[in-house]
Amino acid sequence: MKKTLSFPPRAGKHRQDRRCLQRMLPAGRATGKWRVQGAAGGWGQFVATVLILVAQSSASLFAAEPTVQLPQHLEQGQLVIGHAPPNAQIEFDGHSLRIGKDGTFVFGLGRDAPAKAELEVRNADGKSQKLELNVAQRDYPMERINGLPQQTITPNPIIAARIAREQAGVVEARKRDDAREDFLQGFQLPVKGARISGVYGSQRVDNGVPKSPHMGLDMAVPTGTPVHAPADGIVTFAATDLFLTGGTVMIDHGFGLDSSFLHMSRVNVNVGDHVRQGQVIGAAGMTGRATGPHVHWGFNWFEVRLDPALLPKQALIQ
Questions:
Q1: Do 129 and 212 reside in the same domain of the chain?
Q2: Does the chain have fewer CB atoms within 10 Å around its N or its C terminus?
């Protein structure tokens, strides 16, 4: 069994993704506080005072335009967490977004999201605006894997029908759209100190056959290594023997966001269980279509598959 990674030209950006476990999305929100830099006193204080008085006067004459707050940097594969003004309505890519009581909303930028995206915002006063978003494009490596059981690559009709039935259950679980905001506590790695053996977005060639891109983060660890919930949530899917993914667990974090864990040797949870961040949900393995023991962590916004390595790692609320 052999597994190799090769990067196309200009893949330096993606090589950095191996270190992006240290990254996090900008968590701060605009505070509205005035800050004067380089003005220790005297004239600087006078100018600052005038600016504040003018701003206060303007605010009394004109209502501030409600704004949508978003991270400064957006890229393919990213979970986007934003904040909307009161009573706003937002649409993205045909989805009417859930907006929490605190103004929080989310959406996902897929692996192949275009360089330009658009949010349509309708404010409480009935006025609409379209926000154009710049989405950074990524380079993805080619990943060649040999030694997989051929029936997992080109299944016969009976096995193909089984795969379709099992996948239908996964698709159904991803339709959940709870108001819970478990994702705001940030995410932890399901296993720590592991070697990253597969990255999000890589183009797969299995046994010489081009397949779908790899849509998750693979962490190589010995069979039996405990797997922990990366954040609070509710178990929406749990199975021990799916044909392609073996032991499989899905955890819903609210707002259509879910984590999935594949190829597990043991499943410790059941559908409907409420799990806490850090709780053991099972053990790593190599069940289903796998060449060695590892944890596959996938992450979705409904049907859109996102990069777990780009998830925020610290709480977005205190």
A1: no
A2: C
Whole-number Å distance between alpha carbons of 87 and 92: 17
pLDDT in tens, 11-42: 444 444 444 444 433 333 333 322 333 333 44
114: closest CA among 137, 97, 89, 83? 137
* Whether 248 contacts 261, CB under 8 Å: yes
CA atoms within 13 A on the CB side of 269: 28
pTM above 0.85, yes or no: no
Q: Is residue 128 located within the same domain as residue 156? A: no
DSSP-derived letter for residue 55 is H
Tally of domains in the chain:
2
Beta pairing class for 142-146 and 203-206: parallel
Q: What is the CATH number of the domain that holds 247?
A: 2.70.70.10
Residues 83 and 163 in one domain: no
Contact 87, 99 (CB under 8 A): no
- The Cα angle at residue 18 between residues 13 and 20, in degrees rounded to 5: 80
User: 122-177: per-residue pLDDT in tens?
Assistant: 999 999 999 999 999 999 988 777 766 776 777 889 999 999 999 999 999 999 99
d(CA 23, CA 78): 12
Q: Is residue 62 part of a domain?
A: no
